[in-house]
Amino acid sequence: MKGEPIVVLLVEDDAAHAEIVRRNFTDCRLANRMMHVDNGQAALDYLHHQSEFSDHADSPRPGIILLDLRLPKVNGLEVLQHIKTNPEFSSIPVVVLTTSKAEQDMVKAYALHANSYLVKPVDFTKFTELMTTFGFYWVAWNQYPDWSE
Amino acid sequence: MTNITSRRQLEAEIRRSEQRFRQLFDNSSDAIMTIEPPSWKFTTGNHATVVMFGARDVAQFVELGPGELSPEQQPDGRASVEKAQEMIETALRVGSHYFEWTHRRISGELFPATVRLSRIETDGKVFLQATVRDITERVQAEEAIRTKSEELERFVYTVSHDLRSPVVTLQTFLGHLEQDILANNAGRMATDFEFMHAAADKMAQLLDELLKLSRLGHQFNPPENVLLQDVVKEVLDLVAGRIAQRGVQVTVTEEPITLHGDRARFVGLFQNLVDNACKFMDNQPAPHIEIGVETHSAETVFFVRDNGSGIDPRHQAKVFGLFEKLDPHIEGIGMGLTLVKRIVELHNGRVWVESAGIGQGTCFYFTLPGAIQQANKGDKL
What CATH number is associated with residue B373? Predict the structure, then answer.
């Protein structure tokens, strides 16, 4: 399976913000497959192939997770904790993408082993730049082992 | 003759003086007591002491020592007996010692107190005087302030995050719009506008709701006695559209209950709950809402029960949080149940939710002791 583009799982409840990320990925022509879920419970269901994600073909293992913090049902920090304490998923890089600049969120996210913490900029150019940089770094440049092996 | 007279006068003077000091001792609102060696048990206590510890009389009180009027342990985890000994030793050495202490009344009830131990020496005998003040009210007030300030902190955090979110959307799609105009991409322009409109609407809605929440603390209408059924009738008129649209059958208790307070608040309370129940009917073929009253161990408990989509027990604790939405696809910004909680708390009540799970319907219970007690008082007048 080596050479397959990695799957980016976006966990974002705000439809507009999900669209921003989607457009940036499309504009960058980054070969990736973005999967989107809009709440924390759905993210966990996706990873465990439960409920609506019971078909493994519809929920390929993500190579990286872009995680919002303020999410319905199960919040982002809870999702992060679940991922990082579960040996099956703990190696998946989790990049927090949130509007929260609160110190307490940053401290908690890193304590739960977030791999990166990004704040959504209130500026079109900067947001585009951030997503492009993210895409190049995590999707194009960063190397991942073959998860399927 | 003169000697006897002056001696009698002196004795009378001493008696008066002793009476005066006895009155000062007895009438003090602080509990004053003495502790004496070698047993370090209480040897006297004034009226306030007897009342504070809930003793029958002074005789019952003086049979006890500090250890018997304290829990096993103090809040810092140290054994009361051992710590009391240390406090006594410090007071004897230094002359006076002031500290906080958790005491136990004879009934077993614990209460926080401040204690001042003073070393007194008469006729070569050393003993301690203890002045104990019950600070339950102060501790409760401090606790209330702490809770409020934590609430405020959470509120500011939530508001700053949730208001920032639509600003990010507006700014970003404005940028996209500029690009799409240049590229003459009409299809994307329409989407840009859609997202921008939604974000602007959301901001307006957030600000409106925040204003509502901040106004809740102030009473605008004079308090009055209102019948529960009249409040519910007004609510059902307000949400008639939604009820008709969804074909919801509503049943209301006939038990006559009078509420005392701001009618608009009661209407807001029931409106949010009924509105919520209508929103979460899912595809229930026979939607039904029941508004009623139950008595749980002498307490009047109101409820709004529906047979709608229910709430997963794992997520029930979150429903009252500000801007918490369990389903992002349902309209609203997640303020309704926060308002409900605020209104209930303004009447010294509690609100909780019960649902067996998804598809099992939901029941919101709440109490309004403040509104009911005052209504009862009003009835008697």
Answer: 3.30.565.10
Residue of B nearest to A68 (CA): B165
Query: Closest chain A residue to B324 measured between Cα atoms?
Result: A72
Taking one residue from A and the other from B, the number of pairs with CB-CB distance under 8 angstroms is 74
Residue A125 and residue B312: Cβ atoms within 8 Å?
no
Give the mean model confidence (pLDDT) for residues B62-71: 84
Q: How close B161 gets to chain A, by Cα (Å)?
A: 6
Q: In this model, does residue B343 exceed pLDDT 50?
A: yes
Mark yes or no for CB contact B171/A122 under 8 Å: yes
As a whole number, the mean pLDDT across chain B is 88
ipTM score: 0.85
Residues 41-80 of A with CB under 8 A from B: 41, 70, 72-74
Residue A39 forms contact with B (CB below 8 Å): yes
List the domain range (segments joined by +) for residue B184: 137-215
Q: Are residues B30 and B146 in the same domain?
A: no
> Are B44 and B144 contained in the same domain?
no
Mean pLDDT by runs of 10 across the 149 residues of chain A is: 76 93 83 85 95 88 93 91 96 94 92 96 92 88 75
CATH numbers and ranges of domains, chain A:
7-139 (3.40.50.2300)
Is residue B243 within 8 A of residue B277, CB to CB? The reply is no
Asked if the C-beta of A82 comes within 8 angstroms of chain B's C-beta atoms, the answer is: no
CB contact under 8 Å between B165 and A72, yes or no, is no
Structure token digits, residue A39: 């709440």
Look up residue B283 and give its two tokens.
């595809």
Same-domain check for residues B142 and B101: no
* A72 vs B166, B173, B326: nearest CB: B326
Residue holding tokens 């106004």? B215
Instruction: Sort residue B287 into left (φ over 0), alpha (ψ -120 to 50) or beta.
Output: beta
Is residue B327 within 8 A of residue B249, CB to CB? The reply is no
Number of structural domains chain B divides into = 3
Q: In this structure, which long-range contacts are made by residues A86-90, counting pairs with CB atoms below 8 Å and at least 24 apart in sequence?
A: A89/A47
Which pLDDT tens digit goes with each residue over B198-237?
A: 999 988 888 888 888 777 766 667 889 999 999 999 999 9
- Do B155 and B121 share a domain, yes or no? no
**Cross-chain CB nearest to B328 (options A13, A99, A120):** A13
Q: Which of B368, B60, B13 is nearest to B226 (CA)?
A: B368
Contact B176, A124 (CB under 8 A): yes
